[in-house]
Amino acid sequence: MPFKENSQKVVSDLIDGEMMLLNMEAGHYYSLVGAGAPLWSLICQGTTREALLESLNTAYPENDSKSLEADLDQFLESLRAEELISECAEAQSSKVEFEKDYTAPKLATYSDLQDLLLLDPIHDVDETGWPAAAS
User: Fold this and answer.
1) What is the per-residue burial (b if ≥16 Cβ within 10 Å, else e) of 70-106?
2) Where are the domains of the chain?
3) pTM of the model
4) Directed axis angle between helix 65-81 and helix 36-45, to 10°?
5) Distance CA 15, CA 84 (A)
6) Three-state SS for 131?
7) pLDDT per residue over 45-72, tens digit each?
8) CA dihedral defined by 44, 17, 112, 10, rounded to 10 degrees?
């Protein structure tokens, strides 16, 4: 089943070469380590586990395929556990560039700003926007 970024809860951006994610519902923010950033780029477009594994095997042919697969599965499980990805209707086919040397993809989780992020009134916005205009 294809999956993609859970856009109902997650905002992501590349900041100074580091992929940062913010779970607006939980108030946690994340940093993607190693091959995580290029994998996330593929995920944002909609992809499958098999396509991600093929991308890793193509980018790092000198690495053991079983090791890459185990790293990918652990990475995807951490994304699922934090509800950062969700299922989608169809997968897209695209390519991204990986770093020359392989570093396992990891999700670093931070909750030190959780209270502040959850207090932000922007979370209470509906389709009309914020602030609501006086009638």
Assistant:
1) ebbeebbebbeebebbeebeebeeeeeebeeebebbb
2) 3-124
3) 0.78
4) 60
5) 18
6) coil
7) 899 999 999 999 999 999 999 999 999 9
8) -10
